[in-house]
TrEMBL record:
It is found in: Cytoplasm. It catalyses: Thiol-dependent hydrolysis of ester, thioester, amide, peptide and isopeptide bonds formed by the C-terminal Gly of ubiquitin (a 76-residue protein attached to proteins as an intracellular targeting signal). The active site is at 344 (nucleophile), 825 (proton acceptor). Belongs to the peptidase C19 family. Coiled coil: none annotated. Keywords: Autophagy, Cytoplasm, Hydrolase, Isopeptide bond, Metal-binding, Phosphoprotein, Protease, Repeat, Thiol protease, Ubl conjugation, Ubl conjugation pathway, Zinc, Zinc-finger. The keyword Metal-binding applies. Residues 651-692, 726-766 form the UBA domain. Its main location: cytoplasm. It comes from Chelydra serpentina. The lineage of its organism: Eukaryota, Metazoa, Chordata, Craniata, Vertebrata. This is Ubiquitin carboxyl-terminal hydrolase.
Length: 865
């Protein structure tokens, strides 16, 4: 029976067509399941949720008439079995040979132009000889009855309206289309009348730091008062401590711009009040208030706009291996990715990621299981989309060599079967960039930032017993020394890549560089064309030496002196990762906020040995800095105090507490660590925890002399002062409705200061005991918990690392062309089957001259000892 059904589904289906008079009666039982798309619905009529099948594919595409999800013929039955949804619209594009004598044209004719308005044409066809014929029909499961469309007379009115709405719907990826992105980014309601305080704040072009902690990345400039504060924190502790959002909640200043994203074309602006990325038409004026002159940024070093020309022609040619005839590569692992408009930063990272066996096994190896346990909307599930992308790149299904001319001629006599070369990562990009102010835009981004963003998503959605991102994780030992007392402190932190500074002072062609700079200035003054570029040649050994040298610690407070003092910090590897990612720090900001790129050549080695950078820990003769917290400075509070005669509850940075709790430490210990280190951030508090773990009262509640008696007396009258207030009942009810136990919901909300989003992250990283989690999983809502049955249990043993030898072999690198990460283009070179291959969007070719010295991010694998 199943074979007969599949034959009816995948064959012509003409025997299954119903008589016209029976159509209305046939559809009556299914009418409640057929919906008309509303304005907020996304209709996926061009791509399968599980694969890259489309109406162009041999089996066409099936669109569910209830959820409007698209499925290739290999995946539609899974959706039918899981949901019971019976009615699908089958869409198929045929490419046929033109009738002899038909007039030629620039594009193939479309006979049914209303069907696929946003379906891309196949550029490989000879447009003079072939034309399109689009076909649509309703298919009813499980008997696979087919109803050709349009069929207005026989179909019920509701079905006709629903079909017309599906066929005329717009692309669900409108935000990623270059022509429509600016329309999607709404102008903030605060932009026109934004109040800016005249407080004399001037923002420098570099050297930023969060004013409430020590973070130097993911920083946001508040456009009202000029405060520089860190952004949202992530599951693995990266990203930030959320001080920018806290500042808004305290002061109500709505708009902030991300530092590092300011270009002549604009900047990434976020509205805390509107809770979304927004457009600010007055951004130039708002930035000028704090000394940032965007008008000067319209001009690059040679006086021409960066996005109109290729200012460094030689760099573009060398990295893309222009002028050399490259042999195209086809088959598994040699699949290109379409550039969606400045999406090459995503493509090169994903090509590198899926060349690593651990990621191949985690997603492509587990593909059947991931797909079977996917939620009802697989387009919104990270693991499903990772498995889909990995399969698309590795299967070879979308990387087939062109057919021989005689075969093409034979096939074209009947019907053209289009070649599927390359994949379009629209669905993947739409999901992984959702809600991110930078990656959701259509502007070029930093591949290094996207790499860390992806690792964060992998961490949050881990499956199975192993996490593939473990291969990148390593521990860094930081040794801080007080220059006056000579005492030291050792701390450890987690990292995923090694950032190498560019040692410009060690350039081997210094005389040539000086001569070139003189000629360049003379040519600029005389308005002559610039001389031929001379690129600085930097020894890799000098960059490695610069990495290992001590650096000054700003605002260092010495516990030995009980005062601020000069301090230096050195970094070493407490563990070596299985795969070492090395970033060359080429990007910086010059005067007047002009983004600059150091156009240098670094002789990166094929074989790398960094065993000499192994951490040693406290050495004989070294004396540790006393474990004394710096004094807590309590700022004046301008607000009226409800009980100014009582002592206020201690101010504890709950976001830092949360980060420490995610590592598996007891909640009360985390609160004490943050309190006793003066809210200086999770990293400082982590050091306190390491130093006090063996103490008998390590996990006891925080006890502050002089506070408890006052708090208990006040609580009797007010009922509001205390450290452990009960979370709001509506939040508890919301979490329990998702299938979690009440005690778990209360514990999670308490641990995250009643932040619902953080509480859900906390629950997934603090699994229940085994006997309790089994009963909870029975009632877990699959729709709200993607891949719920295979979510991994995060261990509480601390960071997972795979330590080993520090000897590595180069197997890939990502290169950037252009003057800034906000513009230009990325390509990727990977070593496969003993030879280098270049991945340049859809083009995948054997590399003849891999430019190893011009890379931006390098990927090394450990050499087995």
């Amino acid at each position: 029976l199943q074979c007969m059904q599949r034959a009816a589904l995948f064959g012509s289906g003409r025997d299954a067509q119903m008589a016209a008079g029976d159509l209305g009666e046939l559809l009556v039982p299914y009418m409640p399941t057929i919906r008309v798309p509303k304005s907020g619905d996304r209709v996926y009529k061009t791509e399968c949720a599980f694969s890259y099948e489309s109406p162009d594919s041999e089996g066409g595409l099936y669109v569910c008439m209830n959820t409007f999800l698209g499925f290739g013929r290999e995946h539609v039955e899974r959706h039918y079995r899981k949901t019971g949804q019976c009615v699908y619209m089958h869409l198929k594009r045929h490419v046929i040979e033109k009738v002899p004598g038909a007039s030629g044209g620039a594009l193939p004719k479309r006979r049914n132009t209303v069907l696929f308005l946003d379906l891309e044409t196949n550029g490989d066809l000879n447009n003079d000889d072939f034309e399109y014929e689009d076909e649509a029909k309703l298919v009813i499961f499980p008997d696979h009855y087919e109803i050709p469309l349009p069929n207005i007379e026989e179909l019920p009115a509701l079905v006709t309206i629903a079909c017309d709405a599906v066929l005329s719907s717009k692309s669900p990826y409108r935000k990623q289309d270059p022509d429509s992105w600016e329309e999607e980014l709404q102008v903030s309601k605060h932009a026109k009348a934004l109040v800016q305080i005249d407080n004399g704040v001037r923002i420098p072009p570099s050297g930023w730091k969060c004013s409430k902690c020590d973070l130097r990345e993911n920083l946001w400039l508040n456009l009202t008062d000029g405060s520089v504060l860190c952004g949202k924190w992530f599951f693995d502790g990266s990203g930030g401590n959320g001080h920018a959002l806290e500042h808004y909640k305290e002061m109500g200043y709505p708009l902030a711009v991300k530092l590092g994203t300011i270009t002549p074309d604009g900047a990434d602006v976020y509205s805390f009040d509107e809770e979304e990325a927004v457009s600010d038409p007055h951004i130039a004026k708002h930035l000028a208030h704090f000394g940032i002159d965007m008008l000067q940024m319209h001009v690059t070093e040679n006086g021409l706009r960066d996005n109109n020309i290729k200012p460094r022609i030689s760099e573009w040619e060398v990295i893309q291996e222009s002028g050399v005839k490259l042999k195209p590569m086809y088959g598994p692992g040699y699949t290109g990715m379409k550039n969606l408009g400045n999406s090459c930063y995503l493509s090169v990272v994903m090509q590198a990621i899926f060349s690593i066996p651990e990621f191949q096994r985690a997603y492509v190896g587990n593909l059947p299981r991931i797909f079977d346990y996917s939620p009802l909307d697989p387009t919104q599930d990270f693991n499903t989309q990772m498995a889909k992308l990995g399969h698309g790149l590795l299967s070879g299904q979308y990387s087939k060599p062109p057919m021989k001319s005689e075969l093409i001629e034979q096939v074209m006599k009947e019907e053209h079967k289009p070649q599927h070369n390359g994949i379009s990562p629209r669905m993947f990009k739409a999901f992984v960039s959702k809600g991110h102010p930078e990656f959701s835009s259509n502007r070029q981004q930093d591949a290094q930032e996207f790499f860390l963003h992806l690792i964060n998503l992998v961490e949050r959605n881990r499956i199975g017993s192993e996490n593939p991102s473990d291969v990148f994780r390593f521990l860094v030992e930081e040794r801080t020394q007080c220059c006056q007392s000579r005492k030291v402190r050792y701390t450890e932190r987690v990292d995923y890549l090694m950032q190498l500074p560019v040692a410009m002072e060690a350039a081997m062609n210094r005389d040539e560089l000086i001569a070139y700079e003189l000629k360049r200035r003379e040519a600029e003054a005389a308005r002559r064309p610039p001389p031929e570029l001379v690129r600085a040649k930097i020894p890799f050994s000098a960059c490695l030496q610069a990495f290992s040298e001590p650096e000054n610690v700003e605002d260092f407070w010495s516990s030995a002196l009980q005062a601020k003092s000069a301090g230096v910090k050195t970094s070493r590897f407490a563990s070596f990762p299985e795969y070492l990612v090395v970033q060359i720090k080429k990007f910086t900001f010059g005067l007047d906020w002009i983004p600059q790129k150091l156009d240098v050549s670094v002789d990166m080695p094929d074989l790398l040995d960094i065993n000499h950078l192994r951490a040693t820990g406290l050495q004989a003769g070294e004396e540790e800095l006393p474990d004394i917290a710096p004094p807590i400075i309590i700022p004046d509070d301008p607000k009226d105090r409800m009980m100014n005669h009582f002592m206020e509850p201690p101010d504890i940075d709950e976001s830092s507490v949360m980060q420490l709790a995610e590592m598996g430490f007891p909640l009360e210990a985390c609160r004490k660590a943050v309190y006793y280190t003066g809210n200086m951030g999770a990293e400082v508090a982590f050091n306190w925890i390491i130093a006090h773990m063996e103490e008998p009262d390590f996990a006891e509640p925080l006890a502050i002399p002089g506070y408890e008696a006052v708090a208990s007396a006040g609580a009797a009258g007010l009922g509001a002062i205390g450290l452990d207030n009960q979370p709001p009942e509506e939040m508890v009810a919301l979490i329990t409705s998702m299938g979690f136990q009440r005690n778990v919901a209360i514990q999670a909300l308490k641990a995250t200061n009643n932040n619902l989003e953080h509480a859900l992250d906390w629950i997934f990283s603090h699994p229940e005991p085994e006997e309790e989690s089994e009963s909870a999983s029975d009632v877990m809502d699959m729709e709200n918990n993607a891949n719920a049955n295979i979510l991994a249990e995060a261990g509480s043993e601390g960071p997972r690392i795979k330590d080993g030898s520090g000897r590595y072999e180069l197997f890939g690198f990502i290169s950037h062309m252009g003057t800034s990460t906000m513009s230009g283009h990325y390509v990727c070179h990977l070593k496969k089957e003993g030879r280098w291959v270049i991945y340049n969007d859809l083009k995948v070719c054997a590399s003849e001259r891999p430019p190893r010295d011009l890379g931006y991010i390098y990927f090394y694998r450990r050499i087995p000892s």
